[in-house]
Amino acid sequence: MKRVLFDTNVVLDVLLDRQPYVEASAAAWAAVETGVAEGMLAAHAVTTIHYWSGKRGAMPRPGGSSRQS
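Above: the chain's sequence. Below: its structure in token form.
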């Protein structure tokens, strides 16, 4: 099984539906979901993804609501 280190932007493309990159990024993500590859993410990327996803309203907020910008 191949190991894939995902760039932060690939994850953000999928979470935030960023055009025109979302299609290619989602295909890479799907390879991990289907077991074709093992996906990895750098530890420092987690906080960046949380920050940018929260700014765009993609992350759930405490209490179950999400912020809309």
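The chain has one domain: 2-55.
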